[in-house]
Amino acid sequence: MKLKINYAIFAKLYPKKVRDSYSAILKFLGYHIDIESFIGFIIFFGIGLAIALSIYLYLAFKWKLYFQIPAYFIIFQIAIYSWLTLKADKKVRQIEIILPDALQLMSSNLRAGLTTDAALLLSAREEFGPFQVEINRVGKEIASGRDIEDSLLALTKRIPSDRVEKTMYLITTGLKAGGSLADLLDETSSNLRNQRLVEEKVKSNVLLYVIFIFIAITAGAPMLFGLSSFLIQVLTQNLANIQLPEGDYANKIPIALHQVSISTSFVINYAIFSLITSSIFGSMIIGLISKGSAKEGLRYMPLITLMSVGIFLLVRFTVSSLLGDLFVFK
After folding, report:
1. Per the domain annotation, does 178 fall within a domain?
2. Rounded distance, CA 227 to CA 318, Å?
3. What is the pLDDT of residues 77-132, one digit of tens each?
């Protein structure tokens, strides 16, 4: 007898807004699955993964369990949600790139004498990718008797894009004012292309800032942390080996040496934590500058974090190997 788990029960652990957000993203991506079961599964799997990983690290390195389990669970949930969000954003960008060409083709079909629904249906080309399905849907709705303005506004609710929403709002507003649909589509297509050219120029101008932030996070900060942590290690070892003379001579020495209370392991852990934090926020800033959205920077976060921590450890190892024996006094 197989044990079947009802994952939908675990979904109730999430607030309704989070569940609705998951539902909107999965529907937009075209995943026809039970939303409650999916959310419950990632919660259940996340708890199991966090417990298993925490126990392994506890047995291997004696890391405390009560801190690891919630941390790994939160990281896993954020990773899944970020992955789905980035996938949805990629689909949105494809639609926004295709949108001017689709509008231009619709306008050409209308000028050729086709009806509105026929012009939309014939504009649904395979090369339009994910936008093809939406064009077909709008065309079929208009053919079945639905008002064109309602169909276009309903399109904005299915595609989470400000650009698509503003475009459809302009078109419907122009139609209500009595404008020609073909002219509206031509003008909107031309404006979208000009806007894209301006955005490309802006991206090229801010590329220098992106490079500066990238170098500062992946090279500058790790090198400074690596050198400073090595210096603290040298000072800690040397001060521990210094023995002051006892008696009256000790009172005549114009300096006072005390035991260093900060350990080398604390400095290394602090440096790694700081580098990871800087990598997370730095990648978000890079995404905000280059793509216009902080979420876009999350795709660079693993690489930047790996490079930052890796260079820090490499600098520490190199400096310790070359200068370790030179600065240690025995």
Report:
1. yes
2. 10
3. 988 998 998 898 888 888 888 888 888 888 888 888 887 778 878 888 888 888 88
Query: What's the predicted TM-score (pTM) here?
Result: 0.74
Per the structure, the complete domain to which residue 125 belongs is given by 97-194
Looking at the domain assignment, is residue 155 inside a domain?
Answer: yes
| Residue 249 placed within a domain | no
Q: What is the CA radius of gyration of the chain?
A: 30
CA dist., res. 18 & res. 39, Å (int): 10
Same domain, 232 and 300: yes
Residues 37 and 143 in one domain: no
- d(CA 186, CA 212) in angstroms, rounded, equals 40
Unique residue bearing structure tokens 């080996």: 241
Beta carbons within 8 Å of 64's beta carbon, 6+ residues apart: 58
The answer as to whether 59 is a domain residue is yes
Same domain, 54 and 120: no
pLDDT digits (tens, 9 = 90+) for 284-327: 888 888 877 788 888 888 899 999 999 999 998 888 887 766 65
Strand residues in 81-156 grouped as ranges (E): none
